[in-house]
């Protein structure tokens, strides 16, 4: 390849990289929170320490949703973008987590996760709701609005 052509391509790539960085700097601050991947230890710190408490007491100050999944699960893969969208929509009101049942076997065992996906909806006060299977986005929105955020309306 001719030296001038190589130099021109390198200059083009530098401009492209600078443009991408500028775009990221302006877009990223506007983006809301993403779904957080949670471990068993983090669950016990942030949500509920089942080793020391028998009665359910939620530690968080916002309701949360935990998506129990595995990487090879087809329905889990279809649920993932819905959960990402919900985390953007409810970023100031609800915290969204994902727990890989193959990596976090203890956590999956504690909640009796035998099939996936399963989603745990945890209100600030009261007992959590564990639902099996892939629900449509409209139903997930309804559950969040009516079950998790009902106290906020009062």
Could you name the key traits of this structure?
5 strands; alpha/beta; single chain; 6 helices; Glutaredoxin; 15% strand; elongated; 154 residues
Percent helix: 40-55%
Strand order of the largest sheet: 1-3-2-4-5
Task: Say what the CATH topology of the largest domain is.
Answer: Glutaredoxin
* Average pLDDT rating: 86
Q: What's the number of extended β-strand segments?
A: 5
Structural class by secondary-structure content: alpha/beta
Task: Please report the distance between the alpha carbons of the first and last residues.
Answer: 70 Å
**In the CATH hierarchy, what is the class of the largest domain?**
Alpha Beta
Number of domains: 2
Q: What proportion of the residues form beta strands (DSSP E)?
A: 5-15%
Considering the protein shown, what is the CATH homologous superfamily of the largest domain?
Glutaredoxin
Following the backbone from N to C, one meets helices and strands in this order, namely HEHEHEHEEHH
Write the CATH architecture name of the largest domain.
3-Layer(aba) Sandwich
- Whole-number radius of gyration? 21 Å
Main sheet makeup: 5 strands, mixed
Low confidence ranges: 26-32
The gross shape turns out to be elongated
**Count of separate DSSP helical elements:** 6
Task: Write up what this structure looks like.
- This protein has 154 residues and is α/β, with parallel strands linked by helices.
- The chain has a five-stranded mixed β-sheet with strand order 1-3-2-4-5.
- It folds into two domains: 31 residues; 118 residues, 3-Layer(aba) Sandwich (Glutaredoxin), CATH 3.40.30.
- Helices cover 45% and strands 15% of the residues.
């Amino acid at each position: 390849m001719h030296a001038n052509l190589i130099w021109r391509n390198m200059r083009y790539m530098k401009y492209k990289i600078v443009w991408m960085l500028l775009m990221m700097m302006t877009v990223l601050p506007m983006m809301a929170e993403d779904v957080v991947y949670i471990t068993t230890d983090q669950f016990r710190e942030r949500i509920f320490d089942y080793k020391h408490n028998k009665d359910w007491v939620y530690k968080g100050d916002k309701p949360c949703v935990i998506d129990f999944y595995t990487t090879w699960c087809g329905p889990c893969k279809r649920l993932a973008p819905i959960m990402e969208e919900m985390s953007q929509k409810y970023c100031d009101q609800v915290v969204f987590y994902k727990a890989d049942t193959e990596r976090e076997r203890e956590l999956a065992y504690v909640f009796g996760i035998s099939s996936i996906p399963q989603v745990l909806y945890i209100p600030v006060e009261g007992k959590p709701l564990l639902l099996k299977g892939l629900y449509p986005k409209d139903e997930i929105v309804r559950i969040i609005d009516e079950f998790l955020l009902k106290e906020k309306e009062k």
